[in-house]
Design the sequence.
């Protein structure tokens, strides 16, 4: 069965997916921010407030903070990666108007829109976690420096290397998903432009 036969996601499902997406990004960002604050506070102070941080009200506040921070991280990552994103787009769309026209073309086919939204969701998570990784590397480095640990230098090097590998991995995933998304959009828009939706609203062709 063609992928185009998948049912369209409802508005509630799409909104839930967006909430989860932002929350996933925000949890990583919150962990990084908390790590930085813990390093500034110091080991003794963190031991004193550990009971408060593990309470139910603190968990509710953390969840809200993670969601809000997820929005900030997502916007910051979008701004940071805008130049390479535009270069990838120009491989398949010579102008912004041609890209906008392609997106308008596939709006007539809900299943194509659903698949495009799914790809963009994965792309946003990858770009958000790219910044999350950088923030977590900073937090972990500060914690290794400030907290009483053994083999400090080895741990510091391990944090830098692991963080660099993870950041590079998320960047490469973002780049691959973004490039593939533009390529498929160009192909689908060209294909859909010469088709007429059937009564079910799907494209009358196999992919």
Sequence:
């Amino acid at each position: 069965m063609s992928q185009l036969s998948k049912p369209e996601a409802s508005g509630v499902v799409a909104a839930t997916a967006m909430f989860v997406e932002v929350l996933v990004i925000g949890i990583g960002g919150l962990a990084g921010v908390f790590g930085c604050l813990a390093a500034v506070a110091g080991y003794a102070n963190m031991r004193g407030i550990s009971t408060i941080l593990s309470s139910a009200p603190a968990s509710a506040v953390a969840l809200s903070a993670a969601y809000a921070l997820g929005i900030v991280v997502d916007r910051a990552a979008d701004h940071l990666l805008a130049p390479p994103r535009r270069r990838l787009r120009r491989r398949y769309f010579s102008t912004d108007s041609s890209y906008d026209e392609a997106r308008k073309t596939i709006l007539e086919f809900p299943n194509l829109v659903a698949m495009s939204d799914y790809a963009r969701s994965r792309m946003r998570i990858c770009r958000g976690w790219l910044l999350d990784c950088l923030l977590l590397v900073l937090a972990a480095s500060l914690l290794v420096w400030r907290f009483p640990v053994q083999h400090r230098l080895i741990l510091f090097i391990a944090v830098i290397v692991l963080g660099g590998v993870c950041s590079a991995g998320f960047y490469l995933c973002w780049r691959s998903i973004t490039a593939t998304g533009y390529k498929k959009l160009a192909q689908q828009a060209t294909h859909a432009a010469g088709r007429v939706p059937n009564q079910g609203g799907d494209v009358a062709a196999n992919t």
About this structure: Helices lie at 11-41, 43-53, 56-80, 82-89, 96-106, 110-146, 152-193. DSSP finds seven helices and no strands in the chain.
